[in-house]
Amino acid sequence: MRAWEIQRPGPMGSGPLRRVDRPDPQPGTGEVRVRVLACGVCRTDLHLAEGDLEPRRPSTVPGHEIVGVVDRRGPGAVRFAPGDRIGIAWLRGTCGRCRWCRCGRENLCPDAAFTGWDADGGYAEYAVVPEGYAYRLPAGLDDTEAAPLLCAGIVGYRALRRSELPPGGRLGIYGFGASAHVVAQVAIAQGAVVHVLTRSERARALALELGAASAGPADAAPPEPLDSAVLFAPAGELVPVAMRALDQGGTLAVAGIHLSDVPGLVYADELFREKQLRSVTANTRADGEEFLRLAAALGVRPSVTVRPLAEADRALADLAGDRIAGAAVLVP
Predict the structure, then answer these.
(1) pLDDT tens, 48-76?
(2) What would the pLDDT profile of 188-212 be if each residue is shown by its tens digit?
(3) pLDDT category, 41, cuts 50, 70, 90?
(4) Which UniProt keywords apply (predicted)?
């Protein structure tokens, strides 16, 4: 099969991805193989390619927003039938025994495994997944629309919940890429007032098209105090900015897996009056199931730029250069 692998992590200009031909993967016990129909391009893929995240294995195929059709089942795999369309997401496995798994917080499992990090992902023609960690996909979404929902959507949804946005509340979104533009649609559909703050003029235009109440530069103050905020940009210097924008009792959730260093906070201005600062770590499968049902019910539709698999390196370079509005999706 044709695939891309991370050869030597480094800046995109150094060519960290390499096109390769590999044998088609074979599913093991309890696993299914899919023929990839679409794979979203996630900022986590960029962090892995550029070395912000330490590689966990050599020559890994990135990609964890995978839509595919089951074409082979391993021994004991019975959940899906050949021909079923399913989604493969970031969370790939947990131990099921630790205290985090037993209390419904499997996203914190110390032995968790992740697609495109611990195992090969979807920048390829075929991918394999344990059937218990795959998702059935809503029929109303086409392949390229469904792909970004499998990480940008699921993890963004967890971040939105972690921000404790009250009904009809005022939400600030910092950074406006694949995840943020999905979360904005969910929040607006549920009656929130959304203010977007991002450095990209193209992203600000998209935010207004989607119904945001305002869209301004990332370091600007929103037009009103915020009840909640989610930081999607991997820029630690925006944490104090967002904390100052919160109303008393407000919560900031930091959604990314990687963040540059956070400057010191001024307690009286940025944390006092019961403001909260929270991080977000991956997601549970329950988050995924809940979000996919909600996205279908609310009519969430990612804005996608479709690129051929052969241009995966260019798509990641465009993501690094803020040249993509919404989400990029690769198709074989």
Answers:
(1) 999 999 889 999 999 999 999 999 999 99
(2) 999 999 999 999 999 999 999 999 9
(3) very high
(4) Metal-binding, Oxidoreductase, Zinc
Indicate if 46 and 130 belong to the same structural domain.
yes
Same-domain pairing of 114 and 6: yes
CB 234 within 8 A of CB 43: yes
In a shared domain, residues 90 and 206 = no
Q: Tell me which residue range forms the domain holding 209.
A: 155-279
What SS3 string covers the chain? CEEEEECCCCCHHHCCEEEEECCCCCCCCCEEEEEEEEEEECHHHHHHHHCCCCCCCCCCCCCCCEEEEEEEECCCCCCCCCCCEEEECCEEECCCCCHHHHCCCHHHCCCCEEECCCECCCCECEEEEEHHHEEECCCCCCHHHHHHHHHHHHHHHHHHHHCCCCCCCEEEEECCCHHHHHHHHHHHHCCCEEEEECCCHHHHHHHHHCCCCEEECCCCCCCCCEEEEEECCCCCCHHHHHHHHEEEEEEEEECCCCCCCCCCCCHHHHCCCCCEEEECCCCCHHHHHHHHHHHHHHCCCCCEEEEEHHHHHHHHHHHHCCCCCCEEEEEC
Q: CA–CA separation, 10 vs 47, rounded Å?
A: 9
Q: Is the dihedral of CA 116, 330, 290, 131 positive or negative?
A: negative
Q: Is the pTM of this model over 0.85?
A: yes
What is the share, in percent, of the chain residues with pLDDT greater than 90?
Answer: 95
Report the domain count for the chain. Answer: 2
For residue 34, pLDDT over 90 is answered with yes
Distance CA 202, CA 185 (A): 17
